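Q: What would this complex look like in 3D?
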Amino acid sequence: MNERLALTDAELLSVEKPERYIGNEVNAVYKDLSEVDLRYCMCFPDVYDIGMSNLAMQIIYGMLNAQEGVWCERCCSPWTDLEQLLREKDIPLFALESQDPLRDFDILGFTLQYELCYSNVLQMLDLAKIPLPARDRGEDDPFVMGGGPCTYNAEPVADFFDFFYIGEAETRITEVAETVRAAKKEGCSRKETLLRLAQIPGIYVPSLYDVTYLPDGRIASVRPNAAGVPERVHKELAKELSDTYYPLRPVVPYIRVAQDRVVLEILRGCIRGCRFCQAGQLYKPFRERDVKVLKEWAIAMLEQTGHEEITLSSLSSSDYSALGELVEELITYCRERHINISLPSLRIDAFSLDVMRRIQDIKKSSLTFAPEAGSQRLRNVINKGLYEEDILRGAREAFLGGWNKVKLYFMLGIPTETEEDLLGIGDIAGKICMEYFDNVPKEERQGQPVEVNASSSFFVPKPFTPFQWAAMDTRERYLEKVKTVKAGVAAQINQKRIRYSYHSGDVSVLEGVFARGDRRLSAVILKAYQNGARYDAWTEHFHPEYWDEAFVSCGLDPAFYAHREREKEEVLPWDHIDCGVSKAYLYREWEKAKAGLESVNCRLGCEGCGAAAYRTGICPGGAA
Amino acid sequence: MTKLRLKFSKHGPVRFVGHLDLMRYFQKVMRRAGVDIAYSEGYSPHQLMSFAQPLPAGATSDGEYMDISLNSFRDIRLSAGQAADVPAELTEEDALRALILRMNAVMKEGIQVLDAQILAQGAEKAMTAVSACRWRLSFYAEDALGAAALRRIDAAGGTTEALSRFLSERSIRVVKKTKKTERELDLRPLIYEGSAAEDGSMTLLMKAGSTDNVKPALFAAAFLAFLGEDAASVDELSSRMISALMIHRVETYLTVESEGEALLQPLIALSTPSISG
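A: Here is my prediction, written as structure tokens for the whole assembly.
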């Protein structure tokens, strides 16, 4: 326990949820500073409630703290009330455990989970009194590192980071810490340390690469500017997931955070190959964890945390080959102890309905389908591998099993989308209602007829997907499409049983700009931050005017990044990063998408994406 | 089913953990310690656990209480085979001691179970039994309002003098505000004892419970008004008192009848058998 707090009682009691800032949670790690020679702070550029729900944060925290002489602490973005207080009283941003200023650390490791957190990265650095541009940092400043999904194209924030870690933390994070520790001991300069880091596979030091542009703003080339720096940075991947570190004693927050439960990651990657999905490509190949290992971990974590719920985490839980066995064992263990099990990302079929019936209360729960697109043609374009008859059969079985609520998720703005596709959303919702009325006898409806909740979000093309070349819709076009969908829903016979809601799409274009942006956007992010941008992912804090002004004053056009279709030959800002799938494969998939042709999933065949080179998981040469 | 009363303390950084989060914290403690706590019936069963009285966030305490119901003293983390090794003829004392040890082993240092007691059949619940609390209060000099209070106290000749003059009033009219209502009442009879220490802190034994509960803020506001502080800052004190006032709960009491006389005694009485942690 650390009795000393960076804030006074009066200060803590003047902000919302002071528990966000006091550390000292169950399983938080404390070390004696006299025995520590490398201080690492895991930084999360969003509020504690979100940061503490992040699995990567718990993994890295546990892994680094297992190293002798290394103390890994945590820091999340202060909420707006504390930010104001820190500024007024000139208190530097501090880490949760030691409560020491972030400036005192050797490495600040930011996890970049979504593009809209970029202004919060600057908020944290600024409150920590660390120069925002990496080039302005001196020998005494910490190294600022970035990891997580956004680092596959971190060019928009390249100016603010000393280096990025591309890929899964388990393989090299301790090597990164060791390298900085050794360099510090030898008295290496900042530049020398960065050159050493650049030798570690998966480490990308943006300042060691020069970007040149064509007159029209597209990229001409990206080249290393120092000897011994790799032309391309290849992602790191944990080959054997059952042997990797897993945080069996995760930190247990006092407040109810977004993920207030044990998270058991059962597999990584995805066999499906949905063309809109970035995670599906980034985490290839599909790798499963051994079911015996998972059972042991589940029990260990439940006992070490006291959580009352466990969730099985993956991109597609139905694809885990031993799901039945795992769920059986967990149900037996959890039922006696009043622990709930949650199983998101399930495909609806007879097996999953049976599992859900046993782990949750049918009356309260609803069934979720993610058709993503309203017509079969458009579902083929995105290679969803989900057919209308599957959805209707799943719904019918569910209705006969006692469910009467269905949730449907769609995206609007998918390439090649037509009015017919949009009207298809109302049609499928209507057909699901029909399944209910045709199959559930009146006397069994118990006064609560079927309820279909359809919702749509604004599709954002992401790097390392077949849609990385596609133009994103404008917000105006998106809202027009929403109107078409609404009309389609209203035209249904059972329209009273269907509710349609849609994401406002306010922030989506900005997300689209950053997702496929280049380095020049660092200036825009800095300007918008100075204008006041913070917590852009939080609707109530998003101010488009800060960003509009920043684009204008930096002379950059958001449309160039978001609404422009790219040619095959264009050098993309992330071409010097290798995520394991080839650009040739992605382009093949893009062409098949435009032609409405499907590809097979990894269990049925190999589309030659390039991930087989890892020789692991489901790929040829791998175990599963 | 066995009903137990536990006494615990709250110190250090965890003093900022609010009441609802503290309840969640203890629910997790029960699971970490393998306590065979009983659950309610119904659709969403919850642990049978109730707290004597919420403590304001930021306050410390040596006198917190909660009641729990146990199915058994068994450690449910152990499998059936291991459980057989536990002596069947465990005395109540041993069982309570083992329970306290198991809980304290999985708790943060700031929160500790101090004492445990098996409740008699039909014993009144801690929540409804509470009738008084002993508080230790002092103002924070670092807080603007706290500093203003300290100046008032100085001007009145120090804490001892100020408090004794305040308590020699026959009646102290205060307005008690809840979310919905405002009610005037006389605070004086609700303050049973009061004394000041050399460090300027005040120890007060005051009415607590479901009727006429006196929160430290209500006392502090009335005290400052008596010392001449203007109404606006007194009002502010009642609303954000906690950042101006350092609060420590010394003990929580219930009332027992003894030879026709009402006596205050701690929720786990010293005279009854209990196990200290």
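A: To summarize the key features: The domain at 9-234 of chain A is CATH 3.40.50.280 (Rossmann fold). The mean pLDDT of chain A is 95.
Q: Very helpful, thank you.
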